[in-house]
Design a protein that fits this description.
Layout lengths: L2 E6 L5 E7 L6 E5 L10 H7 L4 E5 L18 H13 L7 E5 L1 H12 L7 E4 L4 H10 L1 H6 L2 H5 L4 H18 L16 H11 L4 H9 L28 E6 L20 E6 L6 H4 L1 H12 L8
Parallel strand pairs: 3-4, 3-5, 5-6, 6-7, 7-8
Antiparallel strand pairs: 1-2, 2-4
Helix pairs in contact: 2-3
């Protein structure tokens, strides 16, 4: 059974959370992406709750978590600080941090800065900052695939996303480009799930698009080429935590080049490619995602999603 509660952090941010499992069991922490919310992890929370205390916070700006107005409040340092404060309230360490999309961007930074606070990292279709920067600088195909990031940085982005009953957001979730329509799990966006998305989006989209506004990691344009001067010191991108990267190869926004050369930055890396799966592989193939998380944890979980 999924529990719902809010956790107040020392930085005066409140995170609404979903959870399952025994209160004093080892913790698995799940971070969602855009335009999602913590509910996307419900299958995983229930699946792993026999062995773990499974917690999925809504990141700041989402659902009923705190929603600072200013863009600067969504810089990476603040997002990482939220997760560090949350883990400190969970006895200071987690068995694994599992993250997708924007949650993965937070998780990569967290793992670099706080490696002693987690045993393992599991990333699902979220680019490592070093390979993302490389591809945004040098790969025209990735620049084109990421052009939506500049759109979402526009001052009127949240207003546009709310228009026509969230038509643009449905396009993000089921628009053309995420490979063929007969892929496994292509019919995942059911009406009950749509209602969950609508409920979250109705609580506001200003916070979610502020992630894009605050980030320097966007494709260069004629008006803004600041990305081309951006460089990461090596110590800011090396992940010294055992890491499993699960990559759905049919992702139309995050192209396969993003996982090339990952071992340069992650000494203990396992890379798993899932063919014929889209960016939304968590919805499309929950059984496979559960299996890969189990493999990362080196445990056998007998329950079935």
């Amino acid at each position: 059974m999924i529990e719902k509660f809010a956790i107040e952090l020392p930085n005066k941010i409140s995170l609404s959370c979903r959870a399952a499992g025994p209160e004093y069991a080892p913790v698995l922490l799940f971070l969602h992406g855009f335009p999602e919310a913590a509910f996307v992890w419900d299958d995983m929370l229930e699946h792993f709750s026999r062995y773990y205390r499974c917690i999925a916070p809504n990141l700041r700006g989402y659902e009923r978590s705190s929603k600072p107005e200013e863009v600067e409040a969504y810089r990476a340092k603040h997002l990482v600080a939220d997760i560090a404060a949350l883990i400190n309230q969970l006895d200071g360490r987690v068995e694994a941090l599992v993250a997708h999309d924007w949650g993965g961007a937070v998780a990569w930074n967290f793992a670099v800065q706080h490696p002693k606070m987690l045993k393992r990292l599991v990333i699902i279709n979220s680019p490592h900052p070093a390979t993302f920067l490389r591809e945004l600088k040098t790969n025209p195909a990735q620049q084109a695939a990421s052009a939506y990031m500049n759109f979402l940085s526009r001052p009127d982005a949240s207003h546009l996303l709310e228009g026509d009953h969230y038509e643009l957001l449905w396009h993000f979730l089921q628009g053309p480009g995420d490979i063929d329509a007969d892929r496994p799990g292509a019919d995942w966006l059911t009406e009950p799930l749509k209602n969950q998305y609508r409920e979250v989006w109705s609580l506001g989209l200003h916070g979610p698009v502020n992630y894009y506004r605050a980030s320097p990691m966007k494709p260069p344009t004629e008006e803004n080429r600041s990305l081309m001067q951006l460089e990461f010191p090596r110590e800011h991108v090396v992940v010294n935590v055992p890491t499993r990267v699960i990559w759905a190869e049919g992702d139309s926004a995050l192209l396969p080049g993003l996982v090339e050369g990952l071992d340069e930055f992650i000494p203990d890396l396992t890379l798993v490619r899932i063919p014929r799966a889209s960016h939304w592989v968590i919805h499309e193939q929950p059984e496979r995602i559960a299996q890969e998380i189990e493999a990362a944890l080196a445990v056998e979980v007998q329950t079935t999603i």
